[in-house]
Structure formats: structure tokens, C-alpha cells
Amino acid sequence: MLKISTAAMILALAAAPLAAQDTTTDDNTLGTAVDDTVDTMQEGVDDTVDTMQEGVENGVDAVQEGVDNAQDALDTTTDTTLDADAHATMGADFAVTAPDGYVVLTDWSTLTADAITGADVRDPGDNGIGSVTDLEFDADGQVTGVIADIGGFLGMGTHTVKLGLEDVAIYQHTDGGLIVYTNLSEDALKSMPEYVPPQG
Question: Pairing mode, if any, of strands 120-122 and 178-182?
Fold first, then answer.
């Protein structure tokens, strides 16, 4: 039989707790290392996500700024085009039945006061309600209004008004004669302030 001495048994019993302690220490060290690695990876993921989020936000801001700039440019172009069109093609947007031989005049760029002075002014019902006495021009020589005497009889009791470009449509005959139609009634025109020519 195998005989174990008392001294050997004492050594074995004393060594057992030390071995268990070493194992526990190794497990704790491994666990701490794993935790540290996980934390490091999580920090890396968080940093990456933050960087991506910041990049997306910057990209969105850049796109929005581009859209805003494009809209501003479009608005400016549209305003400029409308201003140019207002001088090149003018007249109220309303339909009238013009007399035979007349067509709507859309290009007012060559229109002169001499050519239109004396032209009949008619309401939407084709009733004669006055006559043109002059044109008003801006500093660039563009027509800004039609001056007309409304009502009266034989030049007496007339009411002089300025018709805005949005209130008139001019029709021209094949022989060059002109008729001015307005979308305002005679009563409405007579209720407007008396026209006073600009000074200077």
C-alpha cells in the first residue's frame, strides 16, 4: 500500500488554497481585460457614430444652403424677367370682343403719346367712356400709365385719371388706329383721384 506521510499531507493541504487563489486571480485578470476591451470598442463605436452623425448634419446643412441660394437666384431672375416683360409685353389680362380689324397690342416698346392721344377708352361692355390724353413714362422711357379723360361732354366735366398697366389693354387696327379697353367701369374711374402730372 501507498503510504503518505503526515508531512506530505500537510504540504498538499497548504498548497490547495494557494492554487485556488491563483486561479481566481487569473479569472479576475481575464475578466478585467475583457471589460477593458469591450469599453474600448464601445468608445470607438460611439466616436464613429458621432463622426457619421456630424457628417450627415453638415451634409444636410450644405444641401439646404445650396437650395436656399438656388431659390434666391431663381427669385432674382424671376423678378428681373417680370420687370423686363412688364415693359416688353404689357396690358391687362382680361378678354374683350374687339371690333373687326383690331388685334391686341402686346409690344408697347414703340408706343408714343402722339400715336395714342385721342384714342377711345372703352369699358368691358364696349361702351365709350372717355379718351386718351397722354402717356406717362418712367426715367428709362418705359410706359407706366395711360392718362385719360373720363366722362363729360364736349370736353366739359371730364375727370382725368391715370390707368395702370394692369387696368388697360390696347387694340390696334390694321390701319394703325388704337382703342384702349379698361377692366374698370366709368363710375369706378370717376371715383379715382384726379390725375396730377408729375412736376419737373
Answer: parallel
